[in-house]
């Protein structure tokens, strides 16, 4: 798949997810009749690549650029509403992502599970799977009433080596095997590994989920999209003169392969995650979001087929904090060339590159 249309491909995949919901839902969704459902990209009998090509052929260059931010602009002439890629679901649907809006509709609250490091201490893969499934059911219900998106930036599967890191509680801990297992189970559950509520391979009917199905039997897509973060060797917030925006993780090749990469590899290969988030830090002198070798390896060696998003403003930090490039525009260019596709908080940098 060529670089210039990959972001629109994934946007179409999530459009595909959105048009299978009940007709009774009030919020606007793509491909609604009577004016916009005749486009080929709305034709569910066509293959996803064919529909993606159709959509891209209809977009102007400016409209394509507008899809590269987390807050993707709508395209009224095609009946495509705005979309916010950034929603959070670390251990329940959270308010710190702009894609989630409690109280703007019928949903005012959601279930909060224990911090991830606490759940991980149970060493119970079925529990992790069921937590992911339960969070996903609530998230999909919120999407169906226009209060959340389809793309959630969780789980955090960084290795928690230093107790001074302020975000260690978000992770499964220091053990790569535990972090890998957690990533697999949470992502499988969250992305719809059960398909049916009240059925499936984990016996959910015995755990109080009821009998209603979230997805129909004919649905072949995801319930939602999970995103494994922060890729890679990221475990510092601020310490002394170092911050998460500028620190350089000096890691041997063996430590990278034995410690830091296994959770992400498992997240992709066994969990089938549809998103990776590259981190702020440098890895051996090169910004993580500009490490073409690492990002490309996820695709060529691990079989990753999803989209790669940067952490918020991580592309801007390549120039502003790390002085790795001569200009902000160069930072955007090297990140895109490395394989990163969504630029949260930095759409103006993409515009500048266009100009």
Number of strands: 11
Quickly name the level 1 CATH class of the largest domain. Alpha Beta
Overall CATH architecture of the largest domain: Alpha-Beta Barrel
How much is the average pLDDT?
86
> How widely separated are the two ends?
26 Å
GO molecular function: alpha-L-arabinofuranosidase activity; xylan 1,4-beta-xylosidase activity
Signal peptide: 1-24
Keywords: Hydrolase, Signal
Organism: Hevea brasiliensis (Para rubber tree)
What descriptive keywords fit this protein?
355 residues, TIM Barrel, 2 domains, four-stranded parallel sheet, 11 strands
Can you give a write-up of this model?
Keywords: Hydrolase, Signal. With 355 residues, this protein is an alpha/beta fold. It folds into 2 domains: 1-83, no CATH class; 85-354, TIM Barrel (Alpha-Beta Barrel). It contains 12 helices and 11 strands. The chain has helices at residues 6-18, 48-58, 61-66, 116-120, 125-144, 176-190, 253-260, 262-269, 292-300, 314-320, 328-338, 347-354, and strands at 71-72, 83-84, 151-152, 225-231, 238-239, 242-243, 248-249, 275-278, 282-283, 286-287, 307-310. The strands form 4 sheets. It has a 4-stranded parallel sheet. Helix 6 links the parallel strand 3 and strand 4 (225-231). Helix 5 (125-144) runs parallel beside helix 6 (176-190) and helix 6 (176-190) packs parallel to helix 8 (262-269). The model is unreliable at 17-26, 196-200 and 210-214 (pLDDT under 50).
């Amino acid at each position: 798949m060529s670089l210039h249309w990959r972001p629109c491909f994934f946007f179409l995949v999530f459009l595909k997810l959105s048009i299978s919901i009940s007709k009774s839902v009030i919020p606007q969704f793509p491909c609604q009749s009577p004016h916009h459902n005749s486009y080929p990209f709305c034709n569910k009998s066509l293959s996803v690549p064919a529909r993606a090509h159709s959509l891209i052929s209809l977009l102007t260059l400016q409209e394509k650029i507008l899809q590269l931010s987390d807050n993707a602009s709508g395209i009224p002439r095609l009946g495509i509403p705005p979309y916010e890629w950034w929603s959070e679901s670390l251990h329940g649907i959270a308010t710190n992502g702009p894609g989630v809006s409690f109280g703007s509709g019928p949903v005012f609250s959601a279930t909060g599970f224990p911090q991830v490091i606490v759940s991980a201490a149970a060493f119970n893969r079925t529990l992790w799977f069921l937590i992911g499934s339960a969070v996903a059911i609530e998230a999909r219900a919120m999407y169906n009433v226009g209060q959340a998106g389809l793309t959630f930036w969780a789980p955090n599967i960084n290795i928690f080596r230093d107790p001074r890191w302020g975000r260690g509680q978000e992770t499964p801990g220091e053990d790569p095997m535990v972090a890998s297992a957690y990533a697999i189970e949470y992502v499988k559950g969250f992305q719809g590994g059960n398909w049916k509520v009240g059925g499936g391979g984990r016996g959910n009917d015995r755990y109080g989920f009821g009998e209603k199905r979230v997805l129909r039997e004919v649905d072949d897509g995801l319930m939602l999209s999970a995103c494994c973060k922060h890729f890679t060797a990221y475990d510092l917030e601020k310490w002394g003169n170092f911050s998460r925006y500028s620190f350089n993780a000096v890691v041997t090749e063996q430590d990278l392969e034995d410690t830091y990469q296994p959770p992400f590899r498992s997240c992709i290969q066994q969990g089938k995650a549809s998103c990776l988030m590259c981190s702020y830090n440098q890895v051996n002198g090169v910004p993580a979001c500009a490490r073409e070798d690492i990002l490309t390896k996820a695709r060529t060696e691990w079989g990753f087929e999803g989209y790669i998003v940067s952490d918020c403003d991580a592309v801007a930090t390549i120039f502003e904090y790390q002085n790795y490039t001569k200009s902000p525009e160069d930072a955007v260019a090297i990140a895109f060339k490395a394989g990163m596709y969504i630029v949260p908080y930095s759409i103006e940098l993409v515009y500048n590159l266009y100009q």
